[in-house]
Amino acid sequence: IAAVILHLTVPGGMGGKETLARLLEIDPLVKAVVSSGYSDDPVMADFQKYGFSGVIAKPYRISELGKILHQVIMEKA
């Protein structure tokens, strides 16, 4: 897996922040992009502090997602 996209909030489920914590236990080099419509959330504002490699606010265009994924995947570990 080159990268994962995680939504910050999942009603009734595990959100992106919690999911990333579990993924990092499995693979400390995992590359994850956080996505949410709540652009004022602290995780969105300071995504790297929470272990994310990239951020994209909803709604977004496929071209924006492609650009972010390219940056994250091509970034050196």
> Oligomer, anyone?
single chain
What kind of sheet is the major sheet? 3 strands, parallel
* CATH architectural name: 3-Layer(aba) Sandwich
Structural class: alpha/beta
The CATH superfamily is: Response regulator
List low-pLDDT spans.
none
N to C succession of SSEs: EHEHEH
Characterize the overall form: globular
How confident overall, as mean pLDDT?
A: 95
What is the number of beta strands? 3
- CATH-assigned fold name: Rossmann fold
What's the CATH first level? Alpha Beta
Name the strands of the widest sheet in spatial order. 1-2-3
SSE diagram, text form:
Blueprint: E1 4-7, H1 16-26, E2 32-36, H2 42-45, E3 54-57, H3 62-74
Parallel strand pairs: 1-2, 2-3
Tags for this entry?
single chain, Rossmann fold, 3 helices, 77 residues, 3 strands, three-stranded parallel sheet, alpha/beta
Would you write up a description of this structure?
The protein is of the alpha/beta class and 77 residues long. It has a single domain (4-74), classed as Rossmann fold (3-Layer(aba) Sandwich). 36% of the residues lie in helices and 17% in strands. Strands 1-2-3 form a three-stranded parallel β-sheet, with helices on both faces. Helix 1 links the parallel strand 1 (4-7) and strand 2. The model has no long low-confidence stretch (mean pLDDT 95).
Could you give a quick summary of the protein structure above?
The chain is an alpha/beta fold and about 80 residues long. It is built from three helices and three strands.
